[in-house]
Amino acid sequence: NGMTDYHYTPHAEDDHTHNTEPPCDVCPRNGVCVPHVQCPAHVRDGAQNPQCHLEGTQHIGVCCSTGRRHAAESVRKFRSSVNAEDVKEVHDQSQQRLDNLLVRADVLKDLNYATVNTSDPSYGHHLSVMTYDSRAQTLGRGALLNLFAAQEFKARNVITDEDLELEFTDHADGPFCPPQPLCPNKPIPYKKVGGECNNQKNLDWGAVNTGYERLLPPDYSDGIWAIRNSITGLPLPSARTVSSALILEGNRPSGTLNLMFMQFGQFITHDISTGVVVSLDNGDAISCCFGNGKLIPVQLQHWACAPIVVDKKDIFYGQFGQQCLNFVRTQLAPRSDCTVGYAKQMNGVTHYTDLSHLYGSIEEKILELRAPGGLLKTFKDFGRDLPPLTKRKECLNMHDGAACFESGDNHGNQIISLTVLQTIWTREHNRIARALSKINPTWEDIKIFFETRRILQAVYQHIIYNEYLPLLLGPRMMGMFGLRSTPGYSSSYDPNVNPSLTVEFASAAMRFGHSTVDDQLTVLSPQHKGIYESIFIPEVMFQPSRLRLKPFLDRFLIGMSWQPMQSVDPLVSESLSRYMFHGGSPFGLDLAAINIQRGRDYGVRSYNAYRKLIGMKPFKHFHQFAPSAAQRLSSVYASPEDIDLWVGGLLEEPVEGGVVGPTFANIIADQFSRLKAGDRYFYDNAPDVNPGAFTPSQLKEIKKVTLSRIICDNSDGIELFLHSPNAFLRSDLKRNEPVPCDSPTIPVMDLSRFKEN
Ligand code: HEM
Ligand SMILES: [Ca+2]
């Protein structure tokens, strides 16, 4: 339909053509054969990383002796240590800079213009990216202190650009050391709420409030935190300029996948990644734009401001006189070994797939959410269980009967389809907890709660790896990265693997999902072949009150199963690119521009760098893209070397049997392979590594569960009696026609296997 020519066709022959030698059978010098994306050193000048066969597969990888380190081993030079007096001076100076900064920021909180009004579209954004964990702020400040020290060490030539880039700065400690987690001596069967103590050597790997890792060293223009420039040395085009030229509005429904596939992607995202954006001391949101849509001059801005400049003649914002889109940078996290270095962004949730968005990432939260009987608290609304009402002011529109709900991550109201999933999973917890307490009448509440959590986390991981990822990544990637779920125990745990999220995944690849969102949510009656309601999604962002209407949940779940999601391409619904969180305002935010700016905030390299990383040729000329994309790209970017990763990735044709192009697919596959191999508690790890391992017969039951089972068991049973066996595929597909909930194609897990002997 004409839209596909925004893609270019990835050429299979592109893969690895730069190396003509036959792949090695055994890697030399203790090298391990890994997919290209997992060996950053192979793209460095002069790197010697022969190609090889990935273990047990036909796929080609690269011999890597440097693990996930950025450098080839020979690059490392011995460095003398730093004079103690110099260090003290640097530390004192950093402290002074921090003090000054905080004083200046404190003044801003009393100035009206510098904070976001609750009626401003930016307020919904603030609700999506904030944390209520006070420790995050202390750590963020410590990280800033160390960042200043890095700048000062660099100015004094104690550390070089290369040291910074390759993280060879361990001879230069910063003034701030984060506290180390306290871990029990004896392994406990349950994941810690905050994710710490999972890895036994690196206690804080994957924990809440720790930094993102990266696939490639950052591209900061000062090597430390300043936003990347064009390779011409000039600033990059504004993120809004790029968005308005390249990210278009359009309708291209997926032929196979439904809205649940879209929504489950965001659900997983909220579990594993929330870049905590800097806010004022009192928790208020920072504004980098005046109320009239003009830019606040740099000297009056908060230090974390990086507002997106909007052209006066902007095709959409122009008519409203908006020349500024608010953008605040993500808070930083200190390195756990106290060293200084380039900026690392802070993840405000546990990196692991542990349902932290249901249970919380901090102790206080899980205590707040627990109810007697090992249950999760609920709000009983005319006999139906909904998540508990929140005490925070979170509904963007407080009409009569308006309701916003509590969740483990505080962002569960962002869009009603997400709140629906929060509801289903809350109910599934309570369903299992009730069953367990019948089967094991002697168990105390706390045991019921944590055993239920352990089972639910397992079921959820199974759905991700067994149902969601294969459709997202296609069979080739699943095989290459060892992601496939197999019967029985798996043996993929590797204590050297850091599970932490990468900036490339969080700021670009996983944001493919923004292209899959449809403007409208349809509430369907398939029996009557009719539509009850079609909802414009900005009306249900932070306004999930419809959930209180009795038949809504069932009808909505049916609709999500039938309604196609949008395909992954450079088309993004205007409800995200123009009206996001608009509330009562005639315009909202542009999430596409925010994604682009976030990538720059995180120092993500340009698209070409990641093509090289995954073993494809970079694009030298714009005309290598499809004609329409080429023209648009060259109208905004000075060079193909400047293209933002999120934009370049969306232009790719999907991998076979998957949804995203090769660059995103590799970044995402890498992430989920590390979330598996780096999680000691991964649900199908055997008892030799996993202190919370299941018995073989319990595991067998867990591996029966599908998302359709969870939907069937936790809908209201008012109108939903049938469901498609595969919850992510459209219900109008031939082999996915809805079947009764008790049909054997939607298998049931036998909880009697969880009776304690
Ligand atoms: C349903 C409507 C959705 C809305 C309103 C929405 C909104 C947002 C917002 C406001 C942010 C923060 C942007 C920033 O400041 O950097 C964000 C981040 C993100 N979104 Fe979405 N999103 C939606 C759907 C999705 C879907 C379907 C996916 C994936 C399949 C997804 C993946 C992500 C990821 C990976 C991030 C980065 C999270 C982080 O690390 O902080 N989103 N989204
Ligand atoms: Ca988590």
Brief sketch in words of this structure:
The chain has 20 helices and 17 strands. The protein has 757 residues and is mainly α. Strand 13 and strand 14 form a beta hairpin.
Show the helix and strand layout.
Blueprint: E1 32-34, E2 51-53, E3 60-64, H1 84-108, H2 121-129, H3 134-155, H4 161-165, E4 210-211, H5 239-246, E5 253-258, H6 259-272, E6 308-309, E7 324-325, E8 346-347, H7 356-359, H8 363-369, E9 370-371, E10 375-376, E11 379-381, E12 384-386, H9 416-439, H10 445-480, H11 503-507, E13 520-525, E14 530-536, H12 552-562, E15 564-566, H13 574-577, H14 591-601, H15 607-613, H16 627-636, H17 645-650, H18 662-677, H19 696-702, H20 707-714, E16 722-723, E17 739-740
Antiparallel strand pairs: 1-3, 2-3, 4-8, 5-15, 6-7, 9-10, 11-12, 13-14, 16-17
Helix pairs in contact: 1-3, 5-14, 5-16, 6-9, 9-10, 9-20, 10-18
Bound molecules: protoporphyrin IX containing FE (HEM) and calcium ion.
Residues 125, 128-129, 262, 265-266, 269, 273-275, 414-415, 506, 510-511, 513-514, 516-517, 541, 580, 591, 594, 598 line the site of protoporphyrin IX containing FE.
Averaged pLDDT = 93
Query: Approximately how much beta-strand content do the residues carry?
Result: 5-15%
Ligand inventory reads: protoporphyrin IX containing FE, calcium ion
Helix percentage: 25-40%
Low-confidence segments: 9-17
Number of helices: 20
| Secondary-structure-derived class | mainly alpha
Terminal-residue CA separation:
62 Å
Radius of gyration: 25 Å
Give the biggest beta sheet.
Answer: 3 strands, antiparallel
- What form results from the Cα inertia axes? globular
> How many beta-strand runs?
17
- Give the neighbour order of strands across the main sheet: 1-3-2
